[in-house]
Amino acid sequence: MVHRYIPKGDGEKEKMLETIGVESIDDLFVDIPKDLRLKEPLKIPPALSELELLRRAQELGEKNTPITSRVSFLGAGVYDHFVPLIIDHIISRSEFYTSYTPYQPEIAQGTLQAIFEYQTLICRLTGMDISNASMYEGASAAAEALLMALAEKRKSDNVLVSAGMHPQTIQVIKTYLHYRGVEIREVPLKDGKTDLEAAKELTDANTAGMIVQNPNFFGEMEEVVPFADFCKENKMLSILSVDPISLALLEPPGNQGIDLVIGDGQSLGNGLNFGGPYLGFLAVKKKHMRKMPGRLVGVSRDSEGKRAFVLTLQAREQHIRRYKATSNICTNMSLNALIASIYLNALGTDGLREVATQSLSKAHYLYKGLLETGAFEEVFSSPFFKEFTLKYKGDVKELLAKLRDCNIVGGLDLTEYGREGEILVAVTEKRTKEEMDRYIACVREVSA
Amino acid sequence: MSKIYFTKDHEWVKVEDGKGYIGLTDYAQDQLGDIVYIELPDVGSELEAGDTLGVVESVKSASDIFSPISGEVLAVNEELEDAPELINADAMENWIAQLSIKDEAELENLMDEGEYNDFIGEE
Amino acid sequence: MKYYSTLIFEISREGKRAFSLPALDVPAVDAEVLKSPLRAELDFPAVAENELMRHYVNMSQANYHIDGGFYPLGSCTMKYNPKINEDVARMPNLTQVHPLQPVETVQGTLEVLYELQQDLCEVAGMDAMTLQPAAGAHGELAGLMMIKSYHEKNGDHQRVKIIAPDSAHGTNPATAAMVGFDLVEIKSDEQGNVDLEELKSHLDDKVAGLMLTNPSTLGLFERQVREIADLIHEAGGLLYYDGANMNAIMGKARPGDMGFDVMHFNIHKTFSTPHGGGGPGAGPVGVKKILEPFLPVPRIMKEGDKFVLKSDYPDSIGKLRSFYGNYGVLLRAFAYIRTMGPDGLHEVSENAVLNANYLMSLLKEEYNLPKDQVCMHEFVLAGLKDPGEITTLDVAKRLLDYGFHPPTVYFPLIIPQALMIEPTETESKQTLDEFADAMNSIAKEARETPEVLKSAPSKTPVGRIDEVFAARAVILNYDDMLAYKEEKL
Fold this sequence. Notes:
- The complex is a heterotrimer.
- Chain B is α+β, with helices and mostly antiparallel strands.
- Helix content of chain B is 21%, strand content 37%.
- Chain B has helices at residues 26-32, 79-82, 85-89, 113-122; strands at 3-6, 11-16, 19-24, 35-39, 46-47, 52-58, 61-66, 71-76, 97-100.
- In chain B, the strands form two sheets. Chain B has a six-stranded antiparallel β-sheet. In chain B, strands 4-6-7 form a three-stranded antiparallel β-sheet.
- The radius of gyration of chain B is 13 Å and the shape is globular.
- The N and C termini of chain B lie far apart (30 Å).
- The mean pLDDT of chain C is 96.
- Chain C is an alpha/beta fold.
- Among the domains of chain C are: 8-60, no CATH class; 85-339, Type I PLP-dependent aspartate aminotransferase-like (Major domain) (Aspartate Aminotransferase, domain 2).
């Protein structure tokens, strides 16, 4: 049977073989030694028709409990912000999603322009000079940023990592840097914030850089300027991992002396998708441009002087520099970066501020409400943005289970992260007063 | 009086007042095409003959520049940071780095202009 | 295609908006509570929703794309992106799931991923699989890290050498560097085969492994692969398979049977997921038993009839990215493999190879074929037979005027004036004939009207772009463009 993705008319295969000058398809595979040829079909399930596959997918989906069927306060790096509908309409256009990497700029101006706009938006958001075309996601962007810091400082052999980073990011950093023989020194928190006094103790002449997340994993606000100053004094790069939504309100790190800004762009219009694909953003001050990993799009003009966009500074990258490239990264998350751009353009200045302010206001409403139940204790005293940590006086697992009965995903149990009895709660603009009141009421009921 | 020596990797070193000025040959710039960036060494770094002194980039290539001699980098031609095209314009007049000369005997291993011209004639 | 280069920032007019959010229903909290410096200004575009749509539609029309035309890009496997994949990857109950939800609530998702792992193991002839790597290069990173950990675990800290042929993708050497290995590049002969004698000369107790693409980047199957594997294994090294060219051999042969210990797939090549203008892709990595303890965590396992995430593997290399991989991409690959089944995947490789050989037959009159023999799923031409002043770049640019995306050019580096062509199985005979006609007309033009080729393309939205200007001026965002005084862009 002819497959629907393989266009071969009757007799065409035979005609083609004749042109080639062989008898059969097997003659084309003669280079594969006989003993290596598979003797029987692959043992994978048989083909499904379109209808059968849709049914199978539906059946698998029904084994999930998607967050759309519940009220979710789960965050920890992946946030349930509203995704404007226009995004899917744009990224569903074949011209965007079925196009290749824009190596032939004459017929890829759409993708190139979209990346140029993305780079501009990220620069404006972060206050940095240069953004690349995006990385895999936030955690590997953090690791790549530290590799960049190491490449920028001769004879460096260690880096500082704040214990307030997302635990998964710390794990990824450890994986990337272990194989380079780089020592990772974890800077502890003091009352929920990175302890710069402790950082000082851990710093030596061979420290390449330090990375801090703001707001940190526990939702607490870090002090950016003292961190940037500390790194400058110690001649190492300061890397700040940010929540892009928070930058609608906060001073851009580029204005605060930060050398490199990275983060995960999931919040910017990318759906949850069980962890990916998202995008990582990476933006730097101009002097670090040459050691930057990833693709960059620049503006130029064509043979007639018309404005045109093109991949540039490619001699930094693996396909040219090979063994001497800063990174082996080859791809960018073009379609996810497109999503992020559409998101920022759709919301604009006012919309992004609105999302940030609503998230902030609602998070504080819930925080206050939960404390007032008397069932929780404060853990930290620093300010927070859209996510916070509270300690439950009873059994957290039981609480979360009871909340599930109220159709609420109450947050992340931090017990697994070494913080017994604490939960991490995220609130986006999507949550309503009614939903939060239900959360609070359910807590009262459980704890009564 | 200065004397110029050449390498098989198409660098030149011009000796003046006991210091070596290092650049790329005209043949090299012609082969590379439009130069878009030159990575310069750090002043103060110590190089052995044959070490990578810098990198020269065109749009589609990145090539190492090897130091013809051993010595300390005394200065770099900062003009090239913003105007790498100067090398295309006049490769022999635009030095890249200035090195102290640790071992004059090393110069003996290099080619003079005539030998170099014969060498590129064969390439 | 049309020319459109107006930037969103040039359309923006204060007062417009494209968003709609419910009013705040709790007391507003002032950003002062953050006790952090606040930003004075934020300058994002202000446009209406319809303007935004038109902006992107106009932009998209300046893009070539697989739904619109043929991409004969060697080593890129630009095949059709099936539509059911897109629909499955948008099913709310499969996608509106948070990566930190309790595993009991994501059993359907874990079942998809588990089945995909099993299927990929079977296609590869491997024993275990991780879906975590986000791209092929990321998979290479995982693979070489596992190789390094394996040797370290055995106390072989002196094994620091990775061997790769000079025809390898640039990611191979770059990955070796990232993992802290030394690289030994060995020469390939004209057929892209490894020179066994040279290989032997590098084999000692410093060898950590060999990276190989098979079929090679020249589209030829390495017949001596078993001998190579034996030599590397005897020297105590491991073999890494770069899966870029898997589309040639599905259901025909398996890297695991050839002696490879670890490999990555490029899901966005072999398994039909869209390239998205440069990503996202996915780069699952399969291993033989000996490397299984080193796989990244968490691993997706089945216990009884439940699917679980397990992280308790003390020898694991750790995590390579957050969570579990590019799930949205993996869902599409799952849909594709279920659509094709075992016979379908076999058909894919047979037709990919048939198409490549057919196209090669049509082109070898006018273009240099380094070795006239059957190829696998792709082949490399060494420029025009009668080039005059015409380079491969000119041929590529002229193809744009004929409405085709050019092949991969100037790669692999070992072939002068290389044109690397991979038609994939999803192109019809008619399309291949039309493409060959275009290529052969260009060869004729090269003799008769070379100036047309030198100034090509002329029918694309923009002409040849001044890449030297881009690299020297380095204008990477709109604000720098405005600040650039030398000329108006």
